[in-house]
Amino acid sequence: MSIFKGNVFHHSNNRLEKYYNLIVIGGGPSGLSAAISAYDRGERSILIIERQPVLGGVLNSCLQDGFGFDTFKRSLTGQEYVAQFVKGIKTRCIETALNTTVLELSKDKVIKTVSPNNGIVYYRAKAIVFAAGSREKNRGSLNITGSRPDGVYVSGVIQKMLDDKEKLRAGQAVIFGSDDVGLSLAHRLLNDGVKIKAVIEPNNHLCGSFYNKEKSLDSYDIPLLLSHRIKKVLGNKTIEGVVIEKTDPSSGVAEEETIACDLLIISVGLIPDAGLLLSAGMEISPLSLGPVVNDRYETSVPGLFVSGNALFIHDTADCISKEGFIVGNKAVQYINNFGAQNYYWETQISSKAMQVEGRGGISYAVPQKIDINKSDNDIMVFFRVKEEIHDKSVKVFISGKEYQTIYKKVLYPNIVHSVMLSKRDIISRINGENNIIIEV
């Protein structure tokens, strides 16, 4: 039994619960754009839960420009970019729960949180947008030998230190990883008086954007060493250098080199922060490392949507924000048709969802399922390739029949690619095989 008072009610076990139509978990660009989109579609019962004391997410630490080309048609710093969305939240008076950590998320859309001011609070929602972002891979997963001296940090820690105006006691740094975070840190550290000896990348390709590489590395003649790994960290109390290794694939002979440094920054990529979804029993893709979703960005739990880097690692903040707007719209469609079976034009072609699969040089594709009975007319499928591919065609097969062939001069693994599918075309080709295959 529950006693309601506004959107607050006390459950029979005397725990404090609050109810909203839509709850957004995560106050970064994806979550903020989803909340704004839902509000502009007419939804007013919205709450944003953010574990930091301010909205904005990781972009609050991004002082470099290069954000907003698509969204605002000009170059902004990360702080300036996300400030536009924070302003939109405040202008619309969308409610927020800051400095609040989500402890549990259940399949019946109950969220257990804790905060210094309110203690334990439970929230219930008709729909949830999970936009918790991503987390960094750390040294423990990289098989780097040596002791654990001072001066070895993941990129997020360095960003926080720089944000807090802490003086880095370092003169020479090595960055392990060429993702956008590592590339932007190279530029920021240079401005802080730290010399970047090299950026080491274990893959045979750049992992960040070419824009950031040109701005942060090429402009300062910082070497990018592809197909290299850090074999060992040198030093006891403080780091003195690193031993790097490159293996010649033809001979199998490893070439070693020692680089002296007093700072090692590990920035070997991000992975979706989907731990709460996994603990709630939702399926996680072993390829994208994010949750399995349908073309409405909805998990196996109806009304629980995922957006941004919590789904898969995107190229830019602009892409994340654009997706957030779409997901916020999908969440409102669900809320407005709460309990209804079909809220798009009905087809009843197949009772099963179409399974989306990448083959050949495709590393993963998202969404992994397309529920053709509830799909929009146009369906976008995103994918990444495993390695740089030249002069190849991307082929799409529906139910075993070739649907489209798109010639590509080059496909880069550090860029998210996409294909557009038509709902009517899918329906016309369904022959009993419920699959869509993207192949390179």
Keywords:
440 residues; alpha/beta; nine-stranded mixed β-sheet; 8 helices
Short description:
This protein has 440 residues and is of the alpha/beta class. The protein has helices spanning 29-40, 78-91, 155-163, 180-191, 210-216, 275-279, 317-336, 423-429, and strands at residues 2-5, 8-11, 16-25, 46-49, 95-97, 101-105, 110-115, 119-130, 134-136, 145-146, 152-154, 172-176, 195-201, 224-226, 228-234, 241-247, 254-260, 263-266, 270-272, 304-306, 354-359, 362-366, 369-370, 378-385, 389-398, 401-411, 417-422, 435-439. The strands form 6 sheets. Strands 1, 2, 3, 4, 5, 6, 7, 8 and 20 form a 9-stranded mixed sheet that branches. It has a 5-stranded parallel sheet with strand order 11-18-12-13-14.
Account of the protein in words:
- Residues 1-5 and 341-347 have low confidence and may be disordered.
- The protein has helices at 29-40, 78-91, 155-163, 180-191, 210-216, 275-279, 317-336, 423-429, and strands at residues 2-5, 8-11, 16-25, 46-49, 95-97, 101-105, 110-115, 119-130, 134-136, 145-146, 152-154, 172-176, 195-201, 224-226, 228-234, 241-247, 254-260, 263-266, 270-272, 304-306, 354-359, 362-366, 369-370, 378-385, 389-398, 401-411, 417-422, 435-439.
- With 440 residues, it is α/β, with parallel strands linked by helices.
- Helix 1 packs parallel to helix 2 (78-91) and helix 1 crosses helix 7 (317-336).
- The strands form six sheets. Strands 1, 2, 3, 4, 5, 6, 7, 8 and 20 form a nine-stranded mixed beta sheet that branches.
